[in-house]
Amino acid sequence: MTDSLTPEISAAMTRRQFFRRSTAGIALGIPALATLLATDGFAADTATNAKNGGLVGLPHFPPKARRVIFLHQSGAPSQMELFDYKPNLVKLQGAELPDSVRMGQRITGMTSGQSSFPVAPSIFKFGQYGRSGAWISELLPYHTKIVDDITIIKSAYTEAINHDPAITFVQTGFQQPGRPSMGAWISYGLGSENQNLPAFVVLVSQANALNPDQPLFSRLWGSGFLSSRYQGVKFRSSGDPVLYLSNPPGVLSATRRRMLDSIAKLNRLLAEKYGDPEIDTRVAQYEMAYRMQTSVPDLMDLSKEPESTFELYGPDSRKPGTYAANCLLARRLAERGVRFIQLYHRGWDQHNDLPRDIALQCKGVDQPSAALVLDLKQRGMLDETLVVWGGEFGRTVYCQGKLTGTNYGRDHHPRCFSMWMAGGGIQRGLTIGKTDDYSYNILEDAVHVHDLQATILHCLGIDHLRLTYKFQGRYFRLTDVAGNVVKKVVA
Amino acid sequence: MNEGFPDDNDTEGGFLDCAVEIAQAIDSLEGRSEILSLIAFKYAKSGQLEAAVDLAETINDSYLRDQALASSGLLSRKIGGPSVKPYQPAGLWEEMAFGQGFSGQSYTQSSGPDLYRRGIYTVWKRTVPPPSLTIFDAPDREKCTARRAVTNTPLQALVLLNDPTYVEAARAFAQRVLHSGGRTDRERLNFAFKLATARTPDSQERVVLLGSLREFRSSYQQDQAYASKLLSVGDAKADSRVDPRELAAWTTLASMILNLDETITAE
């Protein structure tokens, strides 16, 4: 390798130099110039709100909720063990699932080889709670305290039957990968309320159950065809909470400050020369990076939380990376104005040993989920925060594997599942939806995934038909070409 | 390159031919030729003009890393072969993995020259792509991308300032400057600045840069332990013949230069 620099290097004319010379003499078409100068080549036609970086004209109408906490239960919890009480199934234990119920429904490769589809009733007891008298499983004792604050939807359904397409569908409105996730759409539309933290934050926790977790994919919080500035930022419980957040060893914060000041000075000299607004943005983003080095550790530091907080969320909330700790972090993120807080809790895919594993999962999830609602309520934040709890599909009434009096498994079931929503824009103490005796088909108030998405956007003051983005020659929406706001659940 | 298919056995010739075709195709598009010629010029300085060709398809995301590695002299010029696993924060694959009976569930970092291959050789796990590339707008490869978005975010600043890849490159860059850049601070600064931006700094810029260097120098003079910590980042060993305090000061200056808008903006 030789270290002599060739004179040709300096002959390379940069775009900036070109514009500098162009504006001095050469006539240049203004539209072309505007397109080329836009930060995002794609977004050149959309005006953004200078205050929060969202779109001008949004929200479309006064919002009820300012932010969303989505508690995704990855792997798909069984509706029959938690919310969809089916006492009559006990009498049918071991009986074949009637064809009149299944109606030719496709089933996954995991049970399609079974010669029999015996009904497996839940072995868990249910009770009625709250003024609304909602049915809640004994697996969810803490949920009995929030039944009057939430709306339970027993009639959610999806089109996908396997995890990847189903989670992708819930998060992006389309089964195939490549669309922006809900958090990205909402950050794009509404911008950020906090200049020191990302608008879209993701927290992942591992299973309490013993069966292996279903994998997750970082594209679930990707921005698809939207600018990558809208992609979710995963906060982690080990190492740097945000990747690359810490200064390298041996770089004191005074040294870093000096570096940033000098970089800013040199960038500003360049900006004066070329007048490129992107350079000013760069300076601002380096400053935000510096502020994040303080704001993120401050967010993650639970040492100032009173004892009562940990009592509320349960002992796991002291252990970084647990679902309980993430629920507490979700509240702290909400307090700081983060727009979309996406949790993923793994471990609900109970094809076998369901009674054992669902009990373990509920032990990890019940108390913190309820605590989050109670905590937001006591802080006066529940009115402006939308909380959503649920998986990507339901589970089958028929047993996967060997059915005994105490043990069974359940396969994937897209035709009905249970979710709940609470907070800004949502009714309180309501249960909607009715499924048949087998918790197989929906009889009343079916809520499609796109309806759910339309409803979430509605709570935020967004008309789901009008939050669009043009890509590959057509306008795209989170709700694709469907979706209706679920009028019954909105307050 | 391992594209994730079991029978993937690309040969050197095949890859290069393909890269030439892509380069020619992109070259015919308006606006791209300028970027390409810039890459060509940057590589021309080390007599590696042909290396520019296979960079054509990875202009945005991995170009910055390639440039930092090239400026520092760490870049491996090898062409072809299996994908490699450069520095990546621990646990990223594991925390999303299925865990049992599948391949690619844990990340084992490469060693030696494989840490410094061009970005196109970085292994691409579709469910957990390399974060330092996705932060710089690498498409998710789930759909056709006719034109890449270009963003300007705080996370990008954190990568360029703190990712061990760039910290180590800054140190190697500083070593190169101290060895080959002349004897005075001014000569060395000119050399370093030109390596990164293809021009010499003007007088105002020089004042800022030399002022920073003096401050870094005095702070590392006071505490050699900090200097040693900074110099220990990365697998490549720091040159023990250079005073660590002086090398740490220049490493910090090099990191600054590698973070300048002019260095990281290819246009």
| Silhouette of chain B | globular
Q: How many H/I helices of chain B?
A: 12
Largest interface, chains and sizes:
A-B, 80 and 84 residues
Nearest-integer average pLDDT of chain B: 80
The residue-averaged pLDDT of chain A reads 90
Low-confidence stretches of chain A: 4-15, 18-45
Explain what you see:
The complex is a heterodimer of chains A (491) and B (267). Chain A contains 12 helices and 17 strands. Chain A has 491 residues and is an alpha/beta fold. About 8% of the residues of chain A have low confidence. Among the domains of chain B are: 59 residues, no CATH class; 107 residues, no CATH class. Chain B has 12 helices and no strands. In chain B, helix 7 crosses helix 8 and helix 9 runs antiparallel to helix 11. The radius of gyration of chain B is 19 Å and the shape is globular. The chains are: A alpha/beta (491), B mainly alpha (267). Chains A and B meet through helix 7 and helix 8 of A and helix 2, helix 5, helix 6, helix 7 and helix 9 of B.
What structural keywords apply?
heterodimer, A: 491 residues, alpha/beta, two-stranded antiparallel sheet, B: 0% strand, globular, disordered N terminus
What's the gist of this structure?
The complex is a heterodimer of chains A (491) and B (267). With 491 residues, chain A is an alpha/beta fold.
Topology of this protein?
The complex is a heterodimer of chains A (491) and B (267).
Chain A: H1 15-24, H2 30-37, E1 67-73, H3 79-82, H4 99-102, E2 126-129, E3 134-137, E4 150-157, H5 163-172, H6 182-190, E5 200-205, E6 233-234, H7 253-274, H8 277-300, H9 307-313, H10 323-335, E7 340-345, H11 354-378, E8 385-390, E9 394-400, E10 409-413, E11 417-423, E12 430-432, E13 434-435, E14 442-444, E15 447-448, H12 449-459, E16 469-471, E17 474-476
Parallel strand pairs in A: 1-7, 1-8, 4-12, 4-15, 5-6, 5-7
Antiparallel strand pairs in A: 2-3, 4-11, 8-11, 9-10, 13-14, 16-17
Helix pairs in contact in A: 7-8, 10-11
Chain B: H1 12-27, H2 32-44, H3 49-53, H4 61-72, H5 131-134, H6 154-162, H7 164-180, H8 185-197, H9 203-222, H10 224-231, H11 244-258, H12 261-264
